């Protein structure tokens, strides 16, 4: 394969992985927003979940951001190894 074909394939792969990350993150956040609505309704009815709301944002945002960081670091490692070869 020529250098330009490899570069184009790498760009398409990168865009595809970003799309996969967006889809997974959207499903994750939507799921937890649904849980937040259920907890919100329970709090209005006097539930003891009020103290757990401060941790809720951490639960919702950390896994998608960690997945993005893991994917970006794996891509950088793969590109560094490909340059050596």
Question: How is the secondary structure organized here?
Answer:
Blueprint: H1 3-44, H2 53-84
Helix pairs in contact: 1-2
What labels would you give this structure?
85 residues, mainly alpha
What are the low-pLDDT stretches, counting only 5+ consecutive residues below 50? none
Shape: elongated
**Helix and strand sequence:** HH
Report the count of strand segments.
0
Helix content: over 70%
Could you describe the largest sheet, including whether it forms a barrel?
Answer: none
Tally of alpha and pi helices: 2
Distance between the termini: 15 Å
Q: What does the radius of gyration come to?
A: 20 Å
Q: What fraction of the residues are assigned to beta strands by DSSP? A: under 5%
- Summed up, the domain count is 1
Q: Calculate the mean pLDDT score and round it.
A: 77
Structural class, judged by helices and strands?
mainly alpha
Structural overview:
It is elongated, with a radius of gyration of 20 Å. It is an all-alpha fold and 85 residues long. The chain has one domain (3-84). It is built from two helices and no strands. The longest helix is centred in the first third of the chain and has 42 residues, at 3-44. The model has no long low-confidence stretch (mean pLDDT 77).
Could you give a short description of this structure?
This protein is mainly α and 85 residues long. It has helices at residues 3-44, 53-84.
């Amino acid at each position: 394969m020529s250098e330009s074909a490899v570069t184009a394939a790498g760009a398409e792969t990168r865009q595809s992985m970003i799309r996969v990350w967006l889809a997974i993150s959207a499903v994750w956040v939507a799921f937890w927003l649904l849980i937040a609505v259920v907890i919100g309704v329970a709090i209005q009815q006097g539930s003891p979940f009020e103290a757990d709301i401060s941790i809720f944002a951490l639960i919702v945002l950390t896994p998608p951001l960690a997945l993005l960081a893991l994917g970006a670091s794996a891509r950088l490692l793969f590109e560094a190894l490909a340059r050596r070869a």
